[in-house]
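Hi C.,

You asked whether I'd gotten around to modeling the 386-residue construct. I have! Everything is below, sequence then structure, no commentary in between.
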Amino acid sequence: MDGATATVHGECAPGFEPVREAFERNFRERGELGAAFTAIRHGEVVVDLRGGWTGPDRARPWQADTLANVWSTTKGMTAICAHKLVDAGELDVDAPVAKYWPEFAAAGKGEIPVRWLLTHRSGVPGIGLDRPVAVEELYDWDLMTSLLAAQEPLYEPGSAGGYHALVYGWLVGEVVRRIAGQGVREFFAEQVAGPLGADFSIGLASAADLDRCATLVDPVVSEETATALAAAFAQAGPVALAALTNPRLEGHHANEPAFRQAVMPALNGHGTARAIATIYGALADGTLLSPATLARARESQGKEVDAVLGLPNEWALGFYLGSDARGFGPNPAAFGHDGLGGSTGGADPENGIAFGYTLNQLGPLIRDDPRKMALVNALYESLPNT
């Protein structure tokens, strides 16, 4: 059985048939292997689909409880943890990071505010190339946070956004840990996922969940694309190389049990599409954060070209805004976060919409994968007067 004959299960509310059609086309036309997509409107699940296989051997169908590593979609969940502390009056995003994490003041970083961690402007988008980092070292929380505390800024803090591809989770997560007195995985479980009944964790908390995980498959790229990517890395400067290649991760790394069970809050959130949609739905309907905190979390920090990725960005505090690319629907103030290869979670409070998407056949893009965009566009096509 191939993508053209993959079986799709689940439900669509009347009027949302275009989403199912787009989901099925992803298998027929866009190389989908296994995936799930859930959408919520005004607190009600209107789309809940799954299909395909959990691995390239096509031995196990994708189930309602299949977990997928969602790469940087995890960053949005980590940002939510910070905003929960803002809501509780325990975190001031304009206070210096060093107020909460004194060791971070080293190497001239004493005045960097928490806001710049959330918006990728800290000047520390990675560990400098003079200290090579092995993949296995990413699993050591104390090591990674100590390296970041000691790291000199790689460019002037606050001067530009530079995507903190790997290190975002330790930077924001250590602030959460210092304030909350517990690890970000535990904080997220107690303050976010647990109360919502959402099947999502920042790194697998139990080895028993390994059997539920989908196997990620590296992107299939053309020779032309592979050549272009190689040329881009060859021409990249030290800031981009530190952010993206120290170490350089590939999709298959996320299949290792040690990777799955580590706490890497920028990289290894595991969950279902329904869990992601549930969490963003709780943002959209105002039950997860207060209106004032959510409004601050969604504030645009300005449009720019990212110093690491070279892509146009418009950040809020820890979330992408839909902006000109309309990556989360036609509302430019819709927000969320994509993950490497295609996964996403997003919310549009004005339209009462939230959604989550998980998959295992990774695409080559960091955001706005064509499969994700087909689903989001079909979702909004299904809304009246949108």
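If it helps when you're writing up: The mean pLDDT is 95.

Thanks,
B.
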